[in-house]
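**Fold tokens**
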Amino acid sequence: MKVAIGNDHAGVELKNYLIDYLKKKNIEVVNVGTDTTDSCDYPVYAKKVAGEVIDKNVDFGILICGTGIGISIAANKVKGIRAAKVNNTTEAKLAREHNHANIICLGARIIGNVIASEIVDSFIEAKESSAENHLRRLSMLD
């Protein structure tokens, strides 16, 4: 499995934690985020991760900013991206199952490292549903 991870200045610490966490699980990580806490613009990193996902260089993406909101809005501007801003494991699981999310967005100022790693695990372990009602709704989004 291969994951792209990107972040702005608010997400450096959480990103580094998640990179270490994922590598311990033998998951390859492509780091396209900033490594400095100097102020920067989250749309830049949202576009980079979205590009990795769209080009199928990775299986899915993780984006991190202060709240997860701005970076999710930016990522969803890219055709073919379904970025879900999630705060807990249930949202992560359902975003993948029901909405076929291909990027999860986390708020570094909202959740802690342990919760973030649990969210990532839930997202990874979930399988996209092929239930007719979910597929119908997804086609409406497309």
User: Anything to note?
Assistant: Residues 17 and 113 are 7 Å apart (CA to CA). The beta strands are 2-7, 28-31, 60-65, 83-85, 103-107.
